[in-house]
Amino acid sequence: MSEQYDATEGYCRTLGHAVRFAYCRTGTRALPCARIADCWFERIPIEDFLRAHYTLQELGTIFAPRPGKLESILEIVQRLTGPQPSS
Questions:
Q1: Which end of the chain has fewer surrounding CB within 10 Å, N or C?
Q2: Contacts of 24 (CB under 8 A, 6+ apart)
Q3: For residue 49, what pLDDT is reported?
């Protein structure tokens, strides 16, 4: 029953306001936000919840290091401008 904490509210450090656990649990990729453990450990047994509802592979994806801001910006620019000819 992954919805048991969905109505619980907490502060989202990424968005800067209160959100329900359901928002953090579903995220934008159908997987939880990478900060879910940091934000919810004081309110619910988050480690137990994650172990019970996600595979080790999914947890690895959730908590994989994210690219830095500069790397993300350069990737977006490259997508918008297309591949550059090599010299």
A1: C
A2: 10, 12, 32, 33, 35, 36, 39, 40
A3: 96
Q: What's the average model confidence in pLDDT over 61-85?
A: 87
Q: Name the band, by pLDDT with cuts 50, 70 and 90, for residue 1.
A: low
Give 69's DSSP letter.
H
4 part of a folded domain = no
User: Domain range spanning residue 53?
Assistant: 9-81
Domain membership of residue 3 (yes or no) is no
Asked if 30 and 37 count as a contact pair (C-beta separation under 8 A), the reply is no
In a domain, 86, yes or no: no
Which tokens hold the place of 55?
A: 């595979």
**The model's pTM:** 0.71
Question: Is 30 a member of any domain?
Answer: yes
CA distance 58 to 50: 10
